[in-house]
């Protein structure tokens, strides 16, 4: 990945945070377009528009060697961590040129090079892996941290509490990042829990826990800086980031379950717009510079669609590959077995 | 060559692996200070310390999930699930995560972890602690499955499992822990994934694994002594991969086969094997392939009912006689 | 309720091709009773001397034919009295009298029991018995099952086959003579295909050696133990040309796939040293080839990958033991064949031509071509491109006829020797 798109370990200031948020926003918009053009592999596309500050703010304090898992709404996190948007788009389109050669897709994207241990389509499914990664870091005396990103919906899953307990018990370099976009699919957080102050649960397990407003990316980044530093030193942490999911659960979902007024108010809490306004008002960047930056990003993201659309389909012969390690026999195709059994000789 | 038990051989395998490879860690409920519910890991915490022999909370899903993450991050975790009956608690981490990560991620990484557990009847442990759930595992591509029947395999199969690049579910039998046998840790074992022909015979082939192997061998002895029937007995050793190459010529010779398994009959391991034998050896069969399997019922605590809920040596003998009548 | 009826016993059909049989000996005397399974008489056909067992209990009333009589299948040979339904004879009452014209009414009460009265052509037989019958040319419908519930088992078919081979074997069997003849006809030289090995021919060679034929199957350049590399077709043809030139008498040259192309080109140059040419699944006889296979083999790195490719070859290739596949993968991973693959095919297009050499060659040397009907590497339709003098066969195999059906290949090769 080119250096300008990765965020190695320092809060590079509001212009950079803005740029990365804009990249996430534009990427997600292009993912929506890919679907409309009929080029995405399926309709299981969960956009993180409105949640850019969580991805960008937290990832601005991750280093090489750190690992993380995400939920199904994880495009922004992976991109903020330095992913190549073209290979991401190709994966979302189910192409051989994607990160997982078209086998994973939007919900199972991963890249070991960037420490992405995998997006997950099971709510809470990726959380315990960071406990294991934390154990590996502790035993190997490596100065790395492992982060689990998940949504508010995962706070209903027992695995989160099993994992938080273990992390706290063993004082692992682990952080739990809850991106609270107010909705688990169609159910609002206050319809799913009696106590929506989620960080209180983590405190009960002995974790260092905070809630921040996702409208302000700098606040997210500052909180992440502090908590991640603590986690590296053996004080596992929990960070809840309050934001609003701008669109439906998936790209195809028009969210009829929530009131228009509520939606309009929620969309006012736009972290990207907020950062942009701040940059202009504080005189850090001129509007024309920001327009130029946005245009450049739009161009970069347009190219991801071309890359995805023009990529090859996976080879049929790859279908039986990677069920087991490369040196192992591949499973026998059903047709081969039937033809063999029914052969007269 | 030493004389030891199935339990002792398992412990020896874990000890040797931990001495050889710093990355090996054991994690599970009661594996450390308590020494394991069935005593397999006794003493290991003293030798290797609590960073490598990790007592966990009673959180089966997170034990397996943490093992997945640890394996991806470079450790060689051996997670212990106290009873296979608890596998339902871990199924997401096992079937959706461990089994699929290599494939979903396009071959970028594997999950070289072991899930050691034990199952089966024989200790009046009741319906929730006596099951044989290997079919759950076998039904999930991406998971290897090993089930040792002998003292030798308790050591060698576990050692081989710990060298596999993919996740292995390793199911011991609670009725075998005290079984004694000779163990040569330096002997060349049968290769991973290879079945072992325990007994040759040209009249009927008995395919089995885990504790039922011993019932099958006892039945074969009786059949020879009392009826002059020569039964071949095969120990599958691993259920994924399945070594059909060893089974085929035996069945082709005998023309009759039965599969003996403690798991319940319907949609079980025996069902899969019977289908395979019928498909592959159809033109050589003189009888339908018979499943001698567990009854389609829960296991009772009553020793009498428990014993007859799964195949007994007497029943296996009787079935062979029926086939050859 | 059972009723005893008199019925005519017809001459049975003891094999699909049998039209008549000769009565050898009656084993039951007139007036004697017999039980189900008792042999009634011995019959001779052109191939068999067999006992005909009773299909139910009864009594022999009258013999209609005697020893030495030649009788058409289905013609009556005796009148018997029986209370049971015999396959195929219930509709043949002994007399035309109306009183006896309703055998259905007088059938025993087992008529509702499907097990006791199998439908014609639906005889209950074990899979093994069916296979043995198929292979031995035994008609199951004339056999009496001795297995569970009257099921025909392997031993029933085996004894039928034994009975037939009994009369078949003549004194002074010509096997030795055949072997001598074979030894005179010069050795058979096998050339394996692309990414193959001389040892691919083992099964077939073993069969031919059994009947006294001398065979050889070297590894081509670029393959196996042949240290010479092969980056062009010419290197292979020249190697084979040298080999042929060194022979003191003509050989029967057999080439498979790419080896068939090499064999045809070498034979064309060295005609005096080739008595016959047999091409098995020959390459270069049509436009297309499974390029994925050719290039896949040349670039394969792992056993898993290789196994996948080998499955394309046909049923027997799928059964190769894991260790053999592993050895092969290690060999191929050396990458010796990558250049050669590019010379043979680009994508799915063949870059080599065998047909041109065959036209002239087949005027001097007998040429036979064998195509597998289920070949997924080289299409069987390439057969239509063969010059008129080439004899073509389509066999029911994949790309490896010599693996999938060595018996058939043996007969084709011996037939042309």
TrEMBL record, chain A:
Protein name, as recorded: Pyruvate dehydrogenase E1 component alpha subunit
Domain Dehydrogenase E1 component as annotated: residue spans: 20-315
UniProt keyword Oxidoreductase, yes or no: yes
Key words, A-Z: Oxidoreductase, Pyruvate, Thiamine pyrophosphate
InterPro entries: DH_E1 (IPR001017), PDH_E1_Alpha_Subunit (IPR050642), THDP-binding (IPR029061)
Cofactor(s) recorded in Swiss-Prot or TrEMBL: thiamine diphosphate
Organism: Hoeflea halophila
Pfam family, one: E1_dh
Domain of life per record: Bacteria
One of the record's GO molecular function terms: pyruvate dehydrogenase (acetyl-transferring) activity
Any one GO BP annotation for this protein: pyruvate decarboxylation to acetyl-CoA
UniProt function note: The pyruvate dehydrogenase complex catalyzes the overall conversion of pyruvate to acetyl-CoA and CO(2). It contains multiple copies of three enzymatic components: pyruvate dehydrogenase (E1), dihydrolipoamide acetyltransferase (E2) and lipoamide dehydrogenase (E3).
SUPFAM superfamilies found in the cross-reference section: Thiamin diphosphate-binding fold (THDP-binding)
Automatic annotation (TrEMBL), chain B:
CDD domains named among the record's database cross-references: TPP_PYR_E1-PDHc-beta_like (cd07036)
Domain Transketolase-like pyrimidine-binding residue range list: 4-179
Cofactor names: thiamine diphosphate
Short name of one Pfam family: Transketolase_C
InterPro entries, per database record: THDP-binding, Transketo_C/PFOR_II, Transketolase-like_Pyr-bd, Transketolase_C
Presence of keyword Oxidoreductase: yes
Keywords: Oxidoreductase, Pyruvate, Thiamine pyrophosphate
Domain of life: Bacteria
Molecular function via GO: oxidoreductase activity
SMART domains: Transket_pyr
Protein name listed in UniProt: Pyruvate dehydrogenase E1 component beta subunit
Origin organism lineage: Bacteria, Pseudomonadati, Pseudomonadota, Alphaproteobacteria, Hyphomicrobiales
Automatic annotation (TrEMBL), chain C:
Disordered, as annotated region: 91-128
Keywords tagged on the record: Acyltransferase, Pyruvate, Transferase
Pfam families: Abhydrolase_6, Biotin_lipoyl, E3_binding
Signal sequence extent: none
Keyword Ubl conjugation appears in the UniProt entry: no
Top-level taxon of the source organism: Bacteria
Protein name: Pyruvate dehydrogenase E2 component (Dihydrolipoamide acetyltransferase)
Organism: Hoeflea halophila
């Amino acid at each position: 990945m080119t250096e300008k798109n990765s965020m190695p370990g320092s809060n590079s200031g509001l212009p950079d945070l803005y740029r990365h948020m804009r990249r996430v926003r534009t990427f997600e918009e292009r993912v929506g377009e890919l679907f409309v053009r009929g080029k995405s592999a399926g309709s299981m596309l969960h956009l993180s528009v409105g949640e850019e500050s969580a991805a960008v703010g937290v990832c601005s304090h991750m280093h090489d060697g750190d690992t993380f898992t995400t939920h199904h709404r994880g495009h922004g996190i992976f991109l903020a961590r330095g992913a190549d948007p073209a290979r991401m788009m190709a994966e979302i389109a189910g192409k051989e040129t994607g990160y997982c050669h078209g086998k994973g897709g939007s919900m199972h994207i991963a890249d070991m090079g960037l420490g992405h241990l995998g997006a997950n389509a099971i709510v809470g499914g990726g959380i315990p892996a960071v406990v294991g990664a934390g154990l590996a870091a502790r035993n190997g005396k490596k100065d790395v941290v492992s982060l689990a990103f998940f949504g508010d919906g995962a706070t209903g899953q027992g695995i989160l509490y099993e994992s938080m307990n273990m992390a706290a018990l063993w004082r692992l370099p682990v952080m739990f990042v809850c991106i609270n976009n107010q909705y688990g699919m169609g159910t609002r957080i206050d319809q799913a829990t009696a106590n929506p102050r989620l960080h209180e649960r983590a405190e009960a397990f002995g974790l260092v826990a905070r809630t921040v407003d996702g409208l302000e990316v700098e606040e997210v980044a500052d909180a992440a800086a502090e908590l991640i530093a603590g986690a590296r030193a053996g004080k596992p942490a929990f960070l809840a980031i309050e934001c609003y999911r701008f669109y439906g659960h998936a790209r195809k979902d028009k969210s009829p379950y929530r009131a228009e007024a509520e939606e309009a108010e929620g969309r006012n809490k736009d972290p990207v717009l907020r950062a942009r306004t701040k940059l202009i008002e504080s005189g850090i960047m001129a509007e024309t510079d920001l327009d130029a930056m946005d245009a450049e990003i739009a161009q970069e993201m347009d190219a991801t669609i071309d890359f995805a659309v023009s990529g090859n389909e996976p080879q049929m012969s790859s279908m039986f590959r990677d069920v087991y390690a490369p040196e192992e026999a591949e499973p026998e195709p059903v047709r081969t077995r039937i033809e063999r059994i029914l052969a007269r000789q | 060559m030493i004389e030891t038990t199935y339990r002792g051989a398992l412990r020896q395998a874990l000890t040797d692996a931990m001495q050889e490879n710093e990355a090996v860690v054991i994690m599970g409920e009661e594996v450390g200070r308590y020494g394991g519910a069935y005593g397999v890991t006794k003493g290991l915490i003293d030798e290797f310390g609590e960073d490598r022999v990790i007592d966990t909370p009673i959180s089966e899903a997170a034990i397996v999930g943490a093992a997945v993450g640890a394996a991806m991050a470079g450790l060689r975790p051996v997670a212990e699930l106290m009873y296979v009956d608890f596998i339902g608690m871990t199924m997401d981490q096992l079937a959706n995560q461990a089994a699929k990560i290599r494939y979903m991620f396009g071959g970028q990484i594997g999950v070289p972890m072991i899930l050691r557990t034990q199952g089966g009847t024989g200790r009046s442990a009741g319906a929730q602690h006596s099951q044989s759930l290997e079919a759950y595992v076998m039904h999930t591509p991406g998971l290897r499955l090993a089930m040792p029947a002998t003292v030798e395999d308790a050591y060698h199969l576990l050692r081989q499992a710990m060298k596999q690049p993919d996740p292995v579910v390793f199911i011991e039998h609670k009725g075998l822990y005290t079984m004694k046998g000779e163990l040569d840790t330096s002997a060349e074992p049968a290769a991973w994934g290879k079945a072992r022909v325990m007994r040759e015979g040209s009249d009927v082939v008995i395919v089995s694994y885990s504790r039922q192997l011993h019932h099958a061998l006892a039945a074969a002895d009786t059949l020879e002594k009392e009826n002059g029937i020569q039964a071949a007995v095969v120990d599958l050793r691993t259920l994924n991969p399945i070594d059909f190459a060893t089974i085929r010529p035996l069945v082709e010779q005998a023309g009759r086969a039965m599969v003996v398994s403690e798991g319940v009959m319907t949609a079980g391991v025996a069902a899969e094997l019977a289908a395979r034998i019928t498909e592959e050896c159809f033109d050589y069969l003189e009888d339908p392939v018979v499943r001698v399997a567990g009854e389609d019922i829960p296991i009772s605590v009553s020793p009498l009912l428990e014993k007859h809920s799964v195949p007994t040596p007497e029943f296996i003998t009787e079935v062979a006689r029926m086939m050859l009548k | 309720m059972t009723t005893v009826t008199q019925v005519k016993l017809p001459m049975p059909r003891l094999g699909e091709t049998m039209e008549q049989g000769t009565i050898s000996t009656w084993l039951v005397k007139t007036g004697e009773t017999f039980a189900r399974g008792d042999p009634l008489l011995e019959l001779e056909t052109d191939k068999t001397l067999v006992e005909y067992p009773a299909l139910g209990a009864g009594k022999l009333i009258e013999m209609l034919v005697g020893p030495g009589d030649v009788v058409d299948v289905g013609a009556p040979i005796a009148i018997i009295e029986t209370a049971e339904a015999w396959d195929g004879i219930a509709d043949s009452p002994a007399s035309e009298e109306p009183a006896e014209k309703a055998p259905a009414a007088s059938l025993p009460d087992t008529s509702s029991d499907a097990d006791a009265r199998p439908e014609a052509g639906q005889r209950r037989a074990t899979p093994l018995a069916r296979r043995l019958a198929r292979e031995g040319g035994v008609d199951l419908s004339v056999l009496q099952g001795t297995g569970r519930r009257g099921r025909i088992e392997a031993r029933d078919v085996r004894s039928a086959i034994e009975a037939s081979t009994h009369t078949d074997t003549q004194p002074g069997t010509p096997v030795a003579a055949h072997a001598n003849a074979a030894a005179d006809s010069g050795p058979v030289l096998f050339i394996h295909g692309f990414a193959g090995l001389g040892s691919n021919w083992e099964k077939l060679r073993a069969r031919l050696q059994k009947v006294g034929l001398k065979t050889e199957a070297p590894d081509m350049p670029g393959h196996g133990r042949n240290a010479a590399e092969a980056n062009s077709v010419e290197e292979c043809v020249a190697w084979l040309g040298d080999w042929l030139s060194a022979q003191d008498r003509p050989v029967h040259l057999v080439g498979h796939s790419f080896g068939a192309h090499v064999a045809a080109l070498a034979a064309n140059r060295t005609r005096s040293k080739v008595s016959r040419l047999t091409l098995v699944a020959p390459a270069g006889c049509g436009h297309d080839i499974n390029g994925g296979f050719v290039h896949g083999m040349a670039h394969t790195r792992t056993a898993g990958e290789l196994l996948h490719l080998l499955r394309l070859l046909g049923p027997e290739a799928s059964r190769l033991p894991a260790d053999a596949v592993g050895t092969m993968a290690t060999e191929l991973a050396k990458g010796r064949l990558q250049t050669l693959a590019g010379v043979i095919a680009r994508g799915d297009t063949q870059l080599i031509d065998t047909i041109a050499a065959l036209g002239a060659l087949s005027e001097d040397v007998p040429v036979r071509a064998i195509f597998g009907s289920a070949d997924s590497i080289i299409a069987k339709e390439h057969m239509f491109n063969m010059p008129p003098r080439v004899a073509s066969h389509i066999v029911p195999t994949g790309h490896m006829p010599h693996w999938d059906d060595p018996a058939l290949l043996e007969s084709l090769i011996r037939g042309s020797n």
